[in-house]
Amino acid sequence: MKVALNKNALKQQRDKLALYRRYLPSLELKRQQLLAAWRTAQRDLAEADAEIAALDAHSEPLLSLLGGSTIPTRDLARLVRVREVSLGEENVVGVRVPTVEAVEFERVAYSTLALPFWVDAVVENLEALARLRVRRQVAAARERALEAASRKIAQRVNLFEKVLIPTAAENIGRIRIALSDQDRAAVVRSKLAKRKRAASTRGDRTASARGAGS
Known about the structure:
Keywords: Ion transport, Transport. By secondary structure, the chain is α+β, with helices and mostly antiparallel strands.
């Protein structure tokens, strides 16, 4: 965009530069806060993955029991199901992210005498795994939202630092040079006009003196 090289434009560019420089620290602070929140979300997601892996490892002895059992695995899976997942919402540095309020399960009644002793442990593990998976899904959603917000605010900071502020400063420099050139040109024109008037006055006087002498 072409900038006018005059005093009004100079004031406008100075005002813009002052505004950008005043606004940039708050943008940078928000960028740092969002980056910290994003890193926390990444850690929470990694912790959920680690807990799922640990639960899977802890469940390996049960898998060996299942392998030697005549009870179909699908029948065991039907003993417990997620009845309801209650999600909330949290404001993290201006970003709305989900939270887990509660996970409710429904167990099918079964006879502890008719089924092996380890079925109780299987049911507990199924509930724990389902709870962890819900937690991981929410953690992943939080991480994605905060990553997107961090990327967006970083782009705005870069816009201010690398485009808006340098452009305004450059425009101010150009306008100052132009105004200085204009001032010098005005001084030169003024001097030339004075010399011209002075020469014209001397010429008139000389002509008058010649007319008087004749």
